[in-house]
Structures are given as structure tokens and as C-alpha cells.
From TrEMBL:
Keywords: FAD, Flavoprotein, Monooxygenase, Oxidoreductase. Belongs to the paxM FAD-dependent monooxygenase family. Gene3D superfamilies: FAD/NAD(P)-binding domain (3.50.50.60). GO terms for molecular function: FAD binding; monooxygenase activity. This is FAD-binding domain-containing protein. Its cofactor is FAD. Transmembrane segments: none annotated.
Length: 245
């Protein structure tokens, strides 16, 4: 385990609500700059479900302060090729390196794609290594702040109140923090569209002849992800050596 350069303790207490990837990364970085950190998660145990996502240069740069995580981040990453199709189902681009789609003259041409459970596990392992243990089964139902007193806090489902210097509401799209942040509750609105997404081990998916024929690996063994445009819909298929969604 490499040494992490932590700044001097600054006496600031931070309470993170939500142990998704946002909350965990925030917890790590707050600890690194010297804060005392607690994390409340409503699930009873680790939930690292989900399939895959892409992170870009700004997120990857954060890892420069975390040598072990940086190493693991690249070990678990994979780099698919990408093809794009228009409304008529015609291929308009690809297969090209996925990183080409976010390349600009300002941003280094770097991205990494991960299976979400793997990425989540890297963050959890790092938190454990620095001695931050997540507090499971703690559902935040409300947030409060006292600007004059310089304190903020959360109310849990059991009615208990927890005060701290800083609260980070990382509890996802339905966060009850909207009342404070936006000055009023912000209701979710349906887009009217739906997406179905599921991941299979690739050896299972390839037992289907149609899938096996369509999603062939390139000659050098690379996988190709496909993005299809549709009327109000967006469909995406990708695969690597382990999974297919
Ligand atoms: C199909 C799909 C594809 C995506 N692809 C990408 C991609 O390629 N790249 C990318 O960057 N992003 C992608 N995203 C978005 C990405 O999943 C989210 O941006 C990311 O999960 C947000 O992380 P988070 O930690 O903020 O929230 P979440 O992952 O939603 O985590 C919230 C956490 O808070 C907990 N929680 C919720 N309510 C409470 C409460 N009241 N009290 C305590 N804990 C609570 C939850 O249990 C959960 O652990 C995709 C999303 C979807 C649905």
C-alpha cells in the first residue's frame, strides 16, 4: 500500500450522505485534505451493482493523489471501440477508439471504461485502507443548516439528528437536499422514454447466434460498442471479453 500525502488535520468535520461513487470519492478527497469524515448509506450493506461507465480526464486526474487507486483504475479499465448509427440504422462512424469522441484540443485524449462494480470496489477498498468505515442502514430523510452557527446536519429515518461542519448530499437524484439547495423541493419528471440495460457474461450472450454474428470481436480481439439513435430513444450495445450489455 503506497503512502498517501494527507494534509494536516484541519478540524473540519464532513458528513457524506450516500455511498455511491460520488459520495465515496468525495469522502476520500475530504479526508486527504485533512477533514474528519463520516459516510451514511441507507443500504444495509455494500451495493455495487450496475454495469459500466466511462470516466474522463478530470476524474482520472483525481487519482494522481492516490497511487494505489490510480494503478488499480488502469488495471480494471478496458478500451472498447465505438460505432455510431443514425435514425435510419446506417453506420455513420466507426469503429474508432472511444476516446476520439471526447477529444478536443483542450482535453487530453484520455478516458477509461470500467465495470461499475469493479470501480466501486476500488473506492471501497481505499476507504477501508485509510480507516473510514461506512455506516450502513442510515437513511437520511432531511437536511438542515444553521448558517449563523456554522453548522449543518442530517436527520435520519429513526429521527436522530447529526450535526457537522459540512454535509455532502451524494444520495442520488431523489435527494431530499433539494429543499435546501434549490430553496424548494424539486420533483423528478419522467422524460417519457425508457431504457433497458442489462449485462451478461459474454460467453452466455454469445450462445445466441444473432448476437454472436453481430457483435464479432475485431481481428485483434477488440470489442465494439454500438450507439444507435432513435425517435426519443437511445440504444447502446457494447461488449468486452467479460460482459455484454
Ligand atoms: C444506464 C446508465 C448509464 C450511465 N453511464 C454513465 C457513464 O458512462 N459515465 C458516467 O460518468 N456516468 C454514467 N451514468 C451516470 C452515473 O451512474 C451516475 O452519474 C452516478 O452513479 C452518480 O453517482 P452518485 O454517487 O452521485 O449517485 P448514485 O450512484 O445514485 O449513489 C447514491 C447513493 O446514495 C444512497 N442513498 C440514496 N438515498 C439515500 C438517503 N436518503 N440516505 C442515505 N443514502 C442514500 C444510494 O443507496 C446510493 O448508494 C449512467 C447512468 C445510467 C443509469
Amino acid at each position: 500500500m503506497s503512502t498517501i500525502e494527507r494534509r494536516e488535520p484541519n478540524g473540519i468535520s464532513v458528513l457524506v450522505s450516500g455511498a455511491g461513487i460520488g459520495g465515496l470519492m468525495a469522502a476520500l478527497e475530504c479526508w486527504r485534505i485533512g477533514c474528519n469524515v463520516r459516510v451514511f448509506e441507507r443500504s444495509k450493506t455494500n451495493v455495487t451493482s450496475g454495469d459500466s461507465f466511462t470516466i474522463g480526464p478530470s476524474a482520472l486526474d483525481t487519482f494522481k493523489h492516490w497511487p494505489d487507486m490510480e494503478k488499480q483504475c488502469y488495471e480494471i479499465a478496458y478500451y472498447p471501440l465505438l460505432s455510431q448509427f443514425n435514425l435510419k440504422g446506417e453506420k455513420i462512424a466507426g469503429p474508432v477508439e472511444m476516446s476520439k469522441f471526447i477529444h478536443s484540443h483542450k482535453v487530453p485524449n484520455r478516458i477509461a471504461r470500467h465495470m461499475r462494480p469493479d470501480f466501486h470496489a476500488v473506492l471501497l477498498e481505499q476507504l477501508k485502507a485509510i480507516g473510514i468505515y461506512l455506516e450502513y442502514g442510515k437513511e437520511v430523510v432531511d437536511y438542515f443548516e444553521n448558517a449563523q452557527g456554522g453548522q449543518a446536519g442530517v436527520v435520519l429515518e429513526d429521527g436522530s439528528k447529526h450535526s457537522t461542519d459540512l454535509v455532502i448530499a451524494a444520495d442520488g437524484v431523489r435527494s431530499p437536499s433539494w429543499g435546501l439547495v434549490a430553496g424548494q423541493p424539486v420533483a423528478n419528471r419522467s422524460s417519457g422514454n425508457a431504457i433497458f440495460r442489462v449485462a451478461y457474461p459474454v460467453e452466455h450472450a454469445l450462445t445466441d447466434p444473432m448476437i454472436a454474428e453481430h457483435f464479432q470481436l475485431t481481428d485483434d480481439g477488440r470489442s465494439v460498442m454500438e450507439m444507435w439513435a432513435g425517435p426519443g430513444a437511445y440504444a447502446m450495445f457494447w461488449r468486452n471479453k467479460d460482459f455484454m450489455t
